[in-house]
Amino acid sequence: MARKPKLGLPLQTLRNAPDALEGRRLRGGVFEIDPAQIVTEGRLDDRLQIEVEGLKNSISKNGQRVPVLVRPLEGHRYNLIYGRRRLEACRELGIKVRAIVTEVEGDQALRDQLLENQERRDLSFIERALVATALLDGDHLEGAERTNRGVAEVLNLHEAGVSQLLSVVRTVGEELIQAIGAAPGIGRPRWEELKKALVAYDGDRDQLQAAAHTAKSESSGSVDEVSDRAFLAVLEAAKSAERKASPPRKGAPALAIPGVGAATVKTGRQGKQLKLDLTTDEPEFVSWLEGNASKLITELHERWKRSED
């Protein structure tokens, strides 16, 4: 992938950068644009709260030294490629934003946007998961590329890694993730632990969101530290409810599955619920199964209906 130019360098460096020569045309100079003319709908980094207070103070004292990058739209409007925090700071200050206007082709704007996020701060696990979900569910990629494999190529991940990210977002839910925040100190294993707890959780999701908000209101420290504590509060609430709702039961015998591993199958809720606990030495298979669960269950359901005819 082409290198992204460093924003701190002069405009001439931006003009001569490889991705500029290959995929974009810059309109000479830096323009001052009313923030109201810049569209930010669908921005991937808008899914979690944006902190701009420190940047706003800096711009107020020293001016906006680094321009944002925008793409022209019809009607004297622009689409933001990167510089979301700078744009928001100028918007709150009530001043025009300094911007470079460019025309990009293909998914270069999307890649620029992702790179900006990663340079601002390493994306947390759940931020990467939200980006992966947005790429798959939104219109950032062409239809044929809007697959797990296409998302993996943009994010420079393995397809199995994308499946893991998507699975966490779909199980935890974006509303609860929003309540928790970026949680940069919480990695994949803890989010997987929360996902597992929520599969067995039968309570009100609003209570979990309330646990996150309460933890934030009672915590001090940086935004990141408070977000980490919100996650831990939600995890404890979900696991606590799981312990209360699941009294000890005699374990079901494991079923040997040749070439795969072993599994236990349990039914509940008057025959309306089935739980499969699979153990295998191939984590890649588990990730693939996780990413294709909906399709596989649909196929099995169709086979069952045909057998009933």
From TrEMBL:
CDD domains: RepB_like_N
InterPro entries, A to Z: Chromosome_partition/occlusion, ParB/RepB/Spo0J, ParB/Sulfiredoxin_sf, ParB_N, Plasmid_partition_RepB, RepB_N
Record Gene3D superfamilies: 1.10.10.2830, 3.90.1530.30
Residues in ParB-like N-terminal domain copies: 31-118
Domain of life assignment: Bacteria
GO cellular component, one term: chromosome
GO MF annotation: an example: DNA binding
Alphabetical GO biological process terms: chromosome segregation
Family: Belongs to the ParB family.
Name of the protein described by the UniProt record: Chromosome partitioning protein, ParB family
Origin species: Paracoccus homiensis
